[in-house]
Write a structure and sequence with these properties.
alpha+beta; 5-stranded antiparallel sheet
């Protein structure tokens, strides 16, 4: 597999870039909101984008499949990153969840499951290390951290109907 460079864009997301055999540089900016920007860089100045196409999350997945995306990338929303016994999972809060609309304090997710929410991401932006007064809004994404069993229990509460 060809080397892809990855650059963190604080408050925005991550930029991935690939140098082609023909010497062109193409990239994708994966926004925290799920939006993707497909970028083609100028041949003479790789720091200057000559073309950019904004894609919704679904369009990005479809384009990935058209290009022969790997099974790992096909389910980026369900990605679970493991580090020893720590699991980090991005979970979309479902409207029928018993926790939807509650504040973090009222949801008592950590007490109930042992997992914590370290960030909330929605169309209006991201909230790193959210306070107990922040609401678990349906459609937002919760970044859930804990041991595997705790994250699984928290995911069930955030996605399953009451």
């Amino acid at each position: 597999m060809r080397k892809v460079t990855e650059t963190d864009l604080p408050g925005v997301g991550i930029r991935f870039e690939l140098q082609t055999d023909a010497g062109r540089c193409v990239g994708v900016v994966a926004h925290q909101t799920g939006r993707r920007d497909l970028v083609v860089y100028d041949e003479r100045d790789v720091d200057r984008a000559c073309e950019s196409v904004e894609l919704s999350e679904d369009e990005g997945h479809t384009l990935g499949e058209m290009l022969g995306g790997s099974p790992v990338l096909e389910h980026l929303d369900d990605a679970v990153h493991r580090l020893e016994d720590l699991v980090i999972s991005w979970v979309t809060i479902q409207s029928r969840s018993p926790l939807a609309g509650l504040t973090l304090a009222d949801a008592t997710l950590r007490t109930r499951t042992g997992a914590g929410i370290v960030a909330l991401v929605s169309d209006s932006g991201s909230i790193p290390i959210p306070a107990g007064t922040e609401r678990l809004e349906a459609g937002a994404t919760a970044v859930v951290v804990g041991v595997p069993a705790a994250v699984k229990a928290a995911t069930r509460l955030l996605t399953r109907p009451a």
